[in-house]
Amino acid sequence: MAKKLFRYTALAIFPLLASLFIRLIYATNKKVFHIPASVGEEPIIFACWHGELLMLPHLYKRYRKKAHAKVLISEHFDGKLIAKTISYFGLDTVHGSTTRGASRVLLNAIKAIREGYDIGITPDGPKGPRHSVGNGVVVMAQKTGTKVVLVEIKASKKWVANSWDRFVIPKPFGTLTYYATPPLDLSSYDLVEAKEIIRSKLLKHSDEEHN
């Protein structure tokens, strides 16, 4: 009973506070954008590492005046918190994991793309390993002919969680630097090649790439 009460209370309060916090962080940071001017009008798959997803909604808003996207989110309780948080930014969700129950999740995501939705995905989510690329993003892109925009979000001042993804929470009064590729067509690559392209480009501005 206590656990249910805690979860009910958390779902009622935390997402609103989190959404306000995200807006506050964005407003109080300097922003630098190294991104394409446009990604076109067709549905796009936006992909970033799980540890960098917190500030992704603000990049999406630069490309779509009206949000029309679904984000792949796990079915666990923390996934429900994230799903409700991003709903305050007008974003919908596809619940599930591309590692567990993958077929159903991918089918739902593919259906959403064909209905005109953009898709948001963390290639190493929901449980890692960190900075690994699962098959889901490639399968979705190639089955639907959808292009992929790869996003890195770097904070000059930040807290880093002691979690598998080293989740980044930017601090106020720093600089947020957004990097995004032009829309990439993965249709001519095999699975291994496409995954390596995604990984290398998502690590282009990371210390890991240069170690």
Secondary-structure element pattern, one letter each: HEEHEHEHEHEEEEH
Low-confidence stretches: none
Q: Calculate Rg over CA atoms.
A: 17 Å
Question: How far is the N terminus from the C terminus?
Answer: 49 Å
Beta strand %: 15-25%
Q: Class by helix and strand content?
A: alpha/beta
How many H/I helices? Answer: 6
Sheet with the most strands, sense and barrel status = 7 strands, mixed
Number of strands: 9
Q: How many separate domains make up the residues? A: 1
Biggest sheet strand order reads: 1-9-6-2-5-3-4
Helix fraction, binned, reads 25-40%
Outline type: globular
Mean pLDDT: 92
Structure description:
This protein is of the alpha/beta class and 211 residues long. It has one domain (2-202). Helices cover 38% and strands 20% of the residues. It has helices at residues 2-28, 56-63, 77-87, 102-114, 136-144, 191-202, and strands spanning 30-34, 44-47, 69-73, 92-95, 118-121, 147-155, 158-160, 168-170, 175-180. Helix 3 links the parallel strand 3 and strand 4 (92-95). Helix 1 (2-28) packs across helix 3. The radius of gyration is 17 Å and the shape is globular. The model has no long low-confidence stretch (mean pLDDT 92).
